[in-house]
Each structure stands twice: as C-alpha cells, then as structure tokens.
C-alpha cells in the first residue's frame, strides 16, 4: 500500500465527539480505496486545548507527508477560529449547517455546547432506559412471559447479532425488543417454538453467513461441536428454512453494521421510534 492511500481523520469536539464521529464515518466511508486512520479528540473546550490539537496535526503532517482531515463540532466561535484559520482541511458541522438553518428559520441558534447528546428531554431519556431494562430482562429467551409487552422479538441462532441489535433499538429508539435463541431442539422440529406462537406477528429473524458465524464462535469456543463448520452450516440452513416456512421476515447480517440492521428492521416492519428523535 502506498503512502497516498493512507490518511488520518481526526474528529475534534467540545463535548463527547459522538456527532462528529458519525459525520466523519459517513463521509470517509465513501472513499473505500483510502485507508483512514481515525482518532477522536473530545472535550476540546479551550483555546489552549485547540492550539495543542493544531500542534499535533502539524506533527502528523510532517511525519506522514499528508495533512490530516479535521472534522469539528465546536460551538464556541473563538475555539472554532483556531481550526478554521488553520491550513488544514476542515469539515465543520456547525459552519456547514447551522448558518443556513438560522437563515431559513430567521432566528439564531442557542450556540450551547453538548445539546445533541445531553439529557434535554427527561421523559424521553427515562423511556429509553426503561426499554434497555426490558431488553436485558428478556434477553436470550429469558422471561418469555413478558413477550406480550414487546414491540419486536428478534429470533435467530446463537451469535448472529440478536442481543446487540436488541440493545441498539432499545437505547436509540426506546423500542421494547426481546430476543430468542433457536436451540437444537427448536431447529430439529422445523416449527416455531410454542413460546413464540402467540406473538408471531412481532417476530423478525436474523441470519448470517455460516462461515462468518464459524469465525465468531471459534473466537470463544474453539474446538467444541458448537463452533464446528458442520454445526454452523446446519443451524443457519435450518433457521432460514424455519423462517421461510413460518413466513417470518428475516435479514442476513453478515456485512451489516448494527445501525444498518436496525434501520433495515424498521423499514421492513414499519416500526417507529417511541421517543422523539432530534
């Protein structure tokens, strides 16, 4: 790999950097031939800290021969000026979007730090935490008597991404999501387990490439029949056959991030967030 195919992307934020990380990831992923090394510098909330970041960027440019790309989410104008007045490529969320929004809305923004990830809506935050508690309570087939309260029940073989998806949908959207692991007995029967039948309209299946499943299982259970190639291929085939026979919608998660899986599930099921997303 030549030097020209490697670049550094640095997210600089006066708070957690979560917004900047999302922006940077979305943008750099459009250039798959470049190997981006990313770094987040959070809580850069003084001019001195900003100047330290600039010095770090200068050192990177000297060492690597390329200026790093800076993705900034800085509210304070004096701190922002340290970056915008520099010679580095700057991608400024506030400069790009807040100004045009102020003109469109004919009013000034609050210019307050950390509003996008702070607890500004206590009711919505409490709702999301209740959903996370529910997801944990009904994780991996536990407390199935609570399935009547579920918005969604994710079904699939072990280690196909059920728990991370459940927690993502509950934390981000406040949805009450349970998940159920298909056991050897379930798969042999080729029928939906009895515990799922009363809520079959809430079911959504996850599947995965058996060779990727093999890799995941071998990381923790190498040498067992559970992590053998034969078991992984058989379980995936049986699960997909069950989904088709029972008319359960399902999704292959092999090359998808948790965010993509969540978005696809919402699209396929028509579910909507329980909390207002801003």
Describe this structure in words.
The model is unreliable at 113-120 (pLDDT under 50). It contains 11 helices and 8 strands. The protein is elongated and about 65 Å long. The longest helix has 18 residues, at 47-64. 46% of the residues lie in helices and 15% in strands. The chain has 2 domains: 3-105, Rossmann fold (3-Layer(aba) Sandwich); 122-269, Rossmann fold, CATH 3.40.50.300. The strands form 2 sheets. A 4-stranded parallel beta sheet has the order 2-1-3-4, sandwiched between helices. A 4-stranded parallel beta sheet has the order 6-5-7-8, sandwiched between helices. It is an alpha/beta fold and 278 residues long. Helix 2 (47-64) packs parallel to helix 3 (77-84) and helix 6 crosses helix 11 (258-269).
Report the span from N to C terminus. 41 Å
Question: How much helix, percentage-wise, in residues?
Answer: 40-55%
In angstroms, what is the radius of gyration?
Answer: 23 Å
- H-E string: EHEHEHEHHEHEHHEHHEH
CATH names the topology of the largest domain as: Rossmann fold
Q: Given the structure, what is the number of helices?
A: 11
CATH superfamily of the largest domain: P-loop containing nucleotide triphosphate hydrolases
**Principal-axis shape:** elongated
Mean pLDDT: 89
How many separate domains? 2
- CATH architectural arrangement of the largest domain: 3-Layer(aba) Sandwich
